[in-house]
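Researcher: Quick one. two chains, 585 residues in total.
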Amino acid sequence: MTAVPPPATPSGPSLAADHELAREPRPPGHEHGELALEVSDLWAGYPGQPPAIEAIDLRVPLGEIVGLVGPNGAGKSTLFKSILGLVPSLRGEVRAFGQPVREARADVAYMPQLEEVDWEFPVSVNDVVLMGCYQGLRPFGGWSRANRHAAGEAIDRVGLGAFANRQVGELSGGQRRRVLMARSIARGSRLLLLDEPFAGLDAAVQHDLLEILDALVQEGRSVLIATHDLSCVASCSDDVLALNRRVIASGSPAAVLTEEVLSLTFERHLLQVASFAPQFAGDHSGHRVAVHDEHRHGE
Amino acid sequence: MIDWILDPYQFEFMRRALLVLLVVSVVGGVVGTFVVHKGLAFSGDALAHSTLAGVAIAFVNGANVGLGALIAAVATAIGIGWTQRRGRVSYDTAIGILFVAMFSLGILVISRRTSYTPDLFSFVFGNILGVSQSDLLGAAVLGAATLAFVAAFRRELIMTAYDPSMAETVGVPVRFFQYALLVLIAVAVVVALKAIGIVLVNAMLIVPAATASLLVRRIEQIMTLAVVFAVIASVVGLHLSFHANVATSPAIVLVACGGFALVLGLTARRRAQVPAEVLATPGGGA
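Model:
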């Protein structure tokens, strides 16, 4: 039997080669159409206010990383929260592994932004990561040996082994993000929702985090990342969804991270984007992309 | 010295005072740790003052005064929780309004009585020596219930306090535990009410836990140390008041505050130092 070359990722090897962190080929299986997360026509927002997000369609296939990009206020966090049921959805459907998210709770891990968390509360890194292992109300319940093992492993994985007993308030911003990342990993979920995991990290730590994400996906986990860090999305995502209250475009990184799509997505933030976009402008290798018509008309 | 310590306990009211203060110290230290670390000091004070309405109404109608205080405090706790979730004015403003409304109601009810009401004033300023056998029993039962609840749901209470969004996604009934914490504070206030008094009861929640927080960094350690500090302040204050013939609850509170000031001074130098490892690790400067 002759050796079979590894299957190409949907985004194609040419894009990966352009970036310092080349993606390894994924294990087969994720192309069979099974979905970790499926969001259909989701409208959501806070009561008494206009919807913060409208008509969102989003699919995270098993074993893939999907990046969600958009400016501040585009509704990235609201989308996460409505997926998780923290913000009421007005219309539409969300399913994780074919089930309503509430029923798939054990299989979904959520990493909020730093501001959601009370960092002055007197808990240690280990205490926080153990929270990821919570499986439901159990009076007088404690953490099992398996929980402690999972937490310890997750802490080592994000490189915080020396800080396990440190009070979280003593950590820097980058370390705090890694604590929340470890908590998501310790949960052992097949789907991770990470809200701005790269913000405020220096390049070396970002690189470490990208490697961790890649390893998680190799284990068959699926990841949805919200970020405004375009270079991280470009180097780690299988698919990208550009969001600004509505889906502006979705598809492979090369197809979505174009000047046209990004300027539609980021609007006033155009100047910052312009300096980023040219590195993708030359890539016209037939990647799938869907730019919604109404935004084209708006040009 | 031995006499100084043991003499007071030949009197039954002093033995009862000591026992009720032990209950107050344990409950205050444990619940107070949440009060200090969730910034609920003002809520604690509001809950304490709101009890006057319950105390006064129960007193005038010849009902159980402790029960009146409990109902008023729990009702106010639920009111505070409600404004926290959906109030249209700021949180502390809403608490301030609840606070003065309930306290005014209490004074109003009392003012209708023309006769002198020393029993009511013992609730305002505390009357440790007037603690009856049934007061002690009531405090012990409420205290045990409070501690049992915290022990049973410590994970849920901590997760709700630390990161409510994530807690909700993994199945913690966050709203229930946000209300539960306020009710726990209300119950802790009622436990200490007769001994310490409405005006000073908040001190038993805040001062020992705040002192402990200067020394240790984990919630279980803070709770334990807060209980130790509360017991020390209670016993020392009780003896001072006995031998110097001064009011007990301010003596206890002043000893506790003195302890806080002492620890604050002793730890000031240590606090100023930033741990070197924090700056030296990857991402540490981020």
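Chain A touches chain B through 50 residues (CB under 8 Å).
Researcher: Thanks, that's what I needed.
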